[in-house]
From TrEMBL:
<keyword id="KW-0813">Transport</keyword>
<dbReference type="InterPro" id="IPR006143">
    <property type="entry name" value="RND_pump_MFP"/>
</dbReference>
<dbReference type="GO" id="GO:0046914">
    <property type="term" value="F:transition metal ion binding"/>
</dbReference>
<dbReference type="InterPro" id="IPR058647">
    <property type="entry name" value="BSH_CzcB-like"/>
</dbReference>
<dbReference type="InterPro" id="IPR058649">
    <property type="entry name" value="CzcB_C"/>
</dbReference>
<dbReference type="GO" id="GO:0016020">
    <property type="term" value="C:membrane"/>
</dbReference>
<feature type="domain" description="CzcB-like barrel-sandwich hybrid">
    <location>
        <begin position="15"/>
        <end position="58"/>
    </location>
</feature>
<feature type="domain" description="CusB-like beta-barrel">
    <location>
        <begin position="61"/>
        <end position="133"/>
    </location>
</feature>
<protein>
    <submittedName>
        <fullName>Uncharacterized protein</fullName>
    </submittedName>
</protein>
<dbReference type="InterPro" id="IPR058792">
    <property type="entry name" value="Beta-barrel_RND_2"/>
</dbReference>
<dbReference type="InterPro" id="IPR051909">
    <property type="entry name" value="MFP_Cation_Efflux"/>
</dbReference>
<dbReference type="GO" id="GO:0060003">
    <property type="term" value="P:copper ion export"/>
</dbReference>
<feature type="domain" description="CzcB-like C-terminal circularly permuted SH3-like">
    <location>
        <begin position="143"/>
        <end position="203"/>
    </location>
</feature>
<dbReference type="Pfam" id="PF25954">
    <property type="entry name" value="Beta-barrel_RND_2"/>
</dbReference>
<dbReference type="GO" id="GO:0022857">
    <property type="term" value="F:transmembrane transporter activity"/>
</dbReference>
<dbReference type="GO" id="GO:0015679">
    <property type="term" value="P:plasma membrane copper ion transport"/>
</dbReference>
<dbReference type="Pfam" id="PF25973">
    <property type="entry name" value="BSH_CzcB"/>
</dbReference>
Length: 219
């Protein structure tokens, strides 16, 4: 908070010797470059030396406070990478956990984890609700594909693989996954070329042929 500054030892507003109240302009200077985030005074209010006129804050960086559920505490620790989403117009952000509280809240049963982010753009505002993904482990996968490459044919998970004669549907077995990718444990080998976009069109062609319609061979 920035307290009123003084000139010649006089407070921001003072009584004159004839006891008539007079107003005078006095500058209020924050001790650092900051943004006013709260005002505690009104026009005409008298201030004393210990009054708080404004609350100011350095907004060039912000704290992201995450609530970690008790069941997940064994997986979370300082230094872990975090992906943060605050919604438009703020782009997705990345940082690391700089602090993990040793205390669990009695009512929430969660623990505070803190991420410090640069905010020179000013897009992040205190009080904004965010969601975060904490990278708790890295597991190598022999083959992994984007989730939107998967299709379902005859109740089987299928990927379209490029061959010398076009594209063929290949039944695959899924393993571990995150929000964007999924591991393929069988049915696809490293280096094989697959359809990554618009695979639903190939699926539609196959279903059309199976239903008695006519469709050209996909290339």
């Amino acid at each position: 908070c920035a307290k009123p500054s003084f000139q010649d030892g006089k407070p921001a507003m003072a009584k004159s010797s004839d006891e008539n109240e007079k107003l005078a302009w006095y500058p209020l200077r924050a001790p650092f470059d900051a943004t006013v985030i709260d005002k505690h005074i009104t026009l005409g209010e008298k201030l004393s030396g210990d009054s708080y006129a404004f609350t100011v804050a350095d907004m060039s960086s912000v704290w992201i406070n995450l609530n970690i559920h008790q069941k997940d505490l064994a997986l979370v620790k300082p230094g872990q990478h975090v992906r943060i989403a605050a919604g438009p117009p703020v782009p997705k952000l990345e940082g690391t956990i700089s602090y993990l509280s040793p205390v669990v809240g009695q009512s929430s049963r969660t623990t505070l984890a803190r991420v410090v982010l640069d905010n020179t753009s000013g897009l992040l505002r205190p009080g904004t609700f965010v969601t975060a993904d904490v990278l708790v482990d890295k597991v190598p996968a022999k083959v992994a594909v984007a989730k939107d490459t998967l299709q379902h044919l005859d109740n089987k998970t299928t990927i379209f693989v490029r061959t010398d004669h076009g594209f063929e549907p290949r039944t695959v077995t899924l393993g571990r996954s995150n929000d964007a990718f999924v591991e393929i444990t069988s049915g696809l080998e490293p280096g094989e070329k697959i359809v990554t976009k618009n695979s639903f069109r190939l699926k539609a062609e196959l279903e059309n042929v199976a239903g008695g319609g006519h469709a050209g061979h996909a290339h």
